[in-house]
Amino acid sequence: MATQAFQKIYTKLNQITKATCSVRASGVGNEELATVGGRLAQVVKIVDDNVTLQIFAGTEGIGTDAEVVFFGKAPTLKVGPDLAGRFFNAYGEPIDGGPEVEGKEIEIGGPSVNPVRRKQPSELITTGIAGIDLNNTLVTGQKIPFFADPDQPYNEVMAMVALRAASDKIILGGMGLSNDDYLFYKNTFENAGVIDRIVSFVNTTENPTVERLLVPNMALTAAEYFATEKNEKVLVLLTDMTLYCDALSIVSNRMDQIPSKDSMPGSLYSDLAKLYEKAVQFPDGGSITIIAVTTLSGGDITHAIPDNTGYITEGQLFLKRDTDISKTIVDPFRSLSRLKQLVIGKKTREDHPQVMNTAVRLYADAANAKTKMENGFDLSDYDERVLEFAKEYSEEILAIDVNIGTDEMLDTAWKLFQKHFTKEEIGIKDEFMNIYWKKE
Amino acid sequence: MTKGVVKAIIENLVQVEVSGPVSQNEICYIDLGGVKLMAEVIKIIGNVAYTQVFESTRNLRPGDTAEFTQKMLEVKLGPGMLSKNYDGLQNDLNKMEGIFLTRGEYTDPLDEDSSWEFTPLAKAGDMVTGGDWLGSVPEKWIEHKIMVPFGLTGEYKVKKIAEKGTYKITDTICTIEDKDGEEIELNMIQYWPVKIPIKCYIQKPRPSRLMETGVRTIDTLNPMVEGGTGFIPGPFGAGKTVLQHSISKNADADLIIMAACGERANEVVELFVEFPELDDPRTGRKLMERTIIVCNTSNMPVAAREASVYTAMTIAEYYRNMGLKVLLLADSTSRWAQALREMSNRMEELPGPDAFPMDLPAIVSSFYARAGFVHLNGGSTGSITFIGTVSPAGGNLKEPVTESTKKAARCFYALSQSRADSKRYPAVDPIDSYSKYLEYPEVIEYLNNNINPTWVDDVTHTKDILLRGREAQEQINILGDDGVPLAYHDRYWKSELVDRVILQQDGFDPVDSSTPMKRQEFMLELILDICDRDFVFESFEEIMPYYVKLINICKQMNYVEFESDDFKKYEAELRKEVEARSAK
Questions:
Q1: What is the pLDDT of residues B114-150, one digit of tens each?
Q2: B186 FRET partner, CA 20 to 30 A, in A159, A356, B196, B262?
Q3: Which residue in B58, B298, B299 is closest to A31 by CB distance?
């Protein structure tokens, strides 16, 4: 960002910490953007003429005589159709060697949608993954995170979800992505030939930490543009939100704020809600759906980050390795999509809710049978059959590399029911039994 | 009027240097390039007022000007509030243009052009005081009373009152005279500061009447009373919001005010979409006709979140003074406490536990104290029943908001994660939860007189069955199925019978979602009769299938209309099964 004429330059910093600096300046607005010694910074606090700036790239090597130039505006993004197919850094600058994007300049982190103008989400998003489509159906306008341990293949699963989901645009907000993961996304999107419907804002681990605070708002501002101006169905992927929260806590710490639970800032809930609540179904057909990743530490969901996230998002998805089939599945027990009842059995086949519940119940019976087996007890005939069923259910439906339509998932479930169980053991309403239970 | 100049900005905390007198909680408007941002004074040091701005402060600069209004944050009260959707500052959300909320856009909570059919209740010469009824207008289906403004606490004489007819809310409908002969003209509108309770009543006795919610685990086991207070803590996914929505749909109240405080926008959208469609089971009208929604969703400005619960409470107090039964639901009060924490942090106050402000327990308890049953000046009664949800961090009930609320609220409906995980809904834990009202002699008397003479004893007995069942289950888990006497299995399954038939309820089933008290009484007596019997079993393997059979029959009863042919058929079947096994 080049310095423009007639801007006043300040050159006397009076305080420098690891992430912030202060300078005496007048006429500066709150949240205004500036450069300090050429690095981008944002105003976070003003007391009289003493202005505190958060320097995104860190303050290493910044001198008390560094030049401070104020831009007179909050961080912005130029939006236009040309965003599609491009890769940007946290400031919205191209990193793919392409030209600057021309378009309307919009402040990021804009206002909220008036709740009475929202539409109730009602359109389902299919992914071909049964752990999602069958058991935890996603709906446009929903916000849902993967709660994953760092060793789980969450980026792979998310890329797969993004590619299979029927959406007009996919916007990737990468925070603290390792360079390898960044290249993984890039290659996957390129190989799939969908690059023209992808927009990426990426902060890798090679970039300064605090920079990543801009990423979600950049991604969501682009999403709002496509969803409101073009009435498109936009899918936003945010990975990894835990690293975003870590950056928040660093800044709040430098600002001498009193930490609350798990050293997180007291405003964590509001900070996260402002992002996640950008997920919306607009009345004119456009929508923003957010799928995020929150990495856990040792599976602990009572930590402040997953805990606050859980209170904000509409459900959560857990990945699990099924050792019977050596594949990753979406955990049918702990995962939940709160909005699924808006579509299942309504936008999908009528027997969907009952088949889903029955399969999960039988899968739970299998888990009990397995415990019994491990404890050395004898297995009943039912236990044996339910174990057989669980294995085939995992293999033919749940495994995330299976890619089939919802009707086919239901048909396969019926096939497995009939193979292993009697009518009574299934206990589904007669009205569906008559249609889907094949006569002998 | 006092003016000021912005001095410092720390997120939404703005320090304003003032040129004249300013009071605590006074509202001011800060001018940001022509857009007026509403703010409230929360601290004053010397000539600097610390204000919390109800909007984003982006681009605000030191040197921007502010004007003080000499008023506290207040609501505008009058006919036309029913069915409205307000934000936390009582702006009518439907009147706002555009899809996105615009900073500095404030809309009229009432419709000043609307006309109302006024019927006088007072006559010239009457002596009146604040809160007395002057007349009434029909608002949807309630008789909306036009009252002497609550701030006029002395004695006034009615000089002139409008005749029956159609008036606008801005038309003068009454002229009153104070003791010095000063005349005051009144229309149908009045204002009241939200942080101050409306106390235009004679007395606030202990509540005694049952407040039916249609939810069995509440009504039967831990009843709520008219004018009572309660709270629902629970981890995410335990069903707080679903339970509150279910109460709001079925509760026996004249008016429901829902304060959606810092929660998901899509949940509020659900209310917007469903309530105009759903029928009120008691009146047959649409639910929306008795509902007011005050919503400040989690992405709306934080300071207005704190205001939203006060706005909702003040509207509730206004309607209570008309002699109505008001139910106020707030979801979630933890978000309100978090808003307080954010401000306290910005003001660099010394923090209490978990960085919440030290006075959190005091703030929570004085808020809960505004609910209650009251005797009004005119001889009638009104009530506000308040139920709030709490979202404890990490599901841990030992955190400051839950503990503060526990001190203030009389009913405790603990949602348990393990019940939610095993799909036992509503996930209210029957053993940890309590209703203090069950200990009130006046409540015991009311319940025994109105339900049946041994009701409270039966309820206590039911709780014992549940507790003994849980103890038996623990023993079975430790010692194994065949390591305990048969009686343990029997005890456990009796508690399962109570749990699955009485406590668990299908909130989405048209019949089961709401159970009237008469039916609850019938079912409880039926189940207790079974629980008090001795059954003959040869081995523990017989016990489970037998009780599962009984449970299934009872559940079928729950799904059909009370006392219908099907219901009686299932009942006969049940009695036959019970007799067959009973010890002679």
A1: 999 999 999 999 999 999 999 999 998 899 999 999 9
A2: B196
A3: B58
